[in-house]
Amino acid sequence: MSRITLPFLLTLVIAIFTSCGDAPVIHDAQTDDHGAAHGPEVTLTVEQIKAIGLVTASPTRQSLSTGLKANGRLVLPPQNMADVSVLMGGLVKQVMVQEGEAISQGQTLALLENLDFLQLQQDYLATKATLTLQRAELERQQALATDKINATRTLQQAQADLDGTEARYSTMEQKLRLFSTDPAKLTPANIRSAYPVQAPIGGFIKRIMVNTGQYADPLKAIFSIVDNRFLHVDLTVFEQDVHKVKEGQRVTISDAHDPDVLHTATIFGVNRAFEADQQAVLVHARIDEKTHDLLPGMFVQAVIEIDSTAALSLPDEAIVSNGDDHYIYVEHQPHVFTQVQVRTGASALGFSEITPLEPLASDAKVVVKGAYYLLSELTKGEGEHHE
Asked: Alpha-carbon distance 371 to 376, whole Å?
């Protein structure tokens, strides 16, 4: 509900109505021509309605729910965060990205120079040449064995030499692929001293821990990447409320620093053990929409929808309070607004359930903007009677 105080509104209403000429006409609770009782009324002129910015609308049936409040923090699953290290240390020849930059999986982040990488390429090409010779030698020995010219041991030795070379060749192929080098395209003419460091996932560069000319240690990460598309929220739910929470329930969350901006999420998992330092479990909810407004590590406030029902509802601004009583204002006749007492129920996303204490037509025109001004005028008129 609005935090505007009645004394402030009273002053504002007096100023508005005074500037519009005639004061509003107030009628206390009375009985209409059909014998039906109704609450007090306020009659306004067209100018007063415009000055207030008064707007009417019919009640609607909204899916409202009772909610469980919880606090939490935005996190990323492990598969959507990456610390990029190198298999083989080397000097950073070039850094090809900047912090905060969007990148794709497999994109080159940096080039590293290493003499061992040069040696690996040389050994691979030499092994490839040896493999060609040994395959030819094995075929020759097999032909001689068919003609019973050579000894069986000679053929066996040729086969063993070929098997050993093929094993080394296959191993070197895999090593080259680890350094993002296609063995099929490697020739003596395109041997290079630098190998690319590629992104294992797509996302954004969170941190760069090296610079050009620095030695990259294989034991230390040199890039940090985050993929915020799969952000989810971990909510803390205490022991007495755990039984109310289950997978599939919807959650409305807001940034603790900007509570007016709402996002929706869906629960996909509930931990089955208490946290080490408290009698509470973590509830995991996946953010429904993709947004750049939410970042890992942010603290959020959430409401978990427990029970949902379709109820007669109005915007929160349409319902005003005077002490413990709640009221709405219905346009009984053109420019005549009747106060109707209601009970309120579930509330969500700016709407609240209402139960009128007197019959309300399904197409009733209810004041949804300007209700506080009418309450203020009636409060000012308490003890007075204007005909």
From this structure: 9
Token pair 């009698």 in the structure block, residue: 279
- Estimate the crossing angle of helix 152-178 against helix 115-146, to 10 degrees: 150
Q: What is the mean pLDDT of residues 371-378?
A: 88
Q: In what order do the strands lie in the sheet with 194-198?
A: 194-198, 108-113, 90-95, 215-216
Report how far residue 249's alpha carbon sits from residue 251's, in angstroms, rounded to the nearest whole number. Answer: 7
State which residues form the domain around 371: 6-66+309-380
User: Are the beta carbons of 158 and 137 closer than 8 angstroms?
Assistant: yes
Whether 357 and 294 map to the same domain: the answer is: no
Verify that 322 and 374 share a domain, yes or no.
yes
User: Cβ(376)–Cβ(81) under 8 Å?
Assistant: no
Tell me how far apart the alpha carbons of residues 237 and 240 are, in angstroms, rounded to a whole number: 8
CB 335 within 8 A of CB 96: no
The domain total for the chain is 3
Domain boundary, last residue among 173, 199, 226: 226
Average pLDDT of span 32-38: 53
**Domain at 346, CATH number:** 2.40.420.20
Q: pLDDT grade, residue 1 (50/70/90)?
A: very low
Region at 323 (left for phi over 0; alpha for psi -120 to 50; beta for the rest): left
DSSP states of 78-90: GGGEEEE--SS-E
How far apart are the C-alpha atoms of 298 and 255, rounded to whole Å? 7
What is the rounded CA–CA span in Å between residue 371 and residue 333? 16
Q: What is the DSSP letter of 108?
A: E
Work out the average pLDDT over 17-34: 57
Taking the mean position of all CA atoms in its chain, how far away is CA 6?
A: 39
Question: Which tens digits make up the pLDDT trace of 242-264?
Answer: 998 999 998 988 876 777 778 88
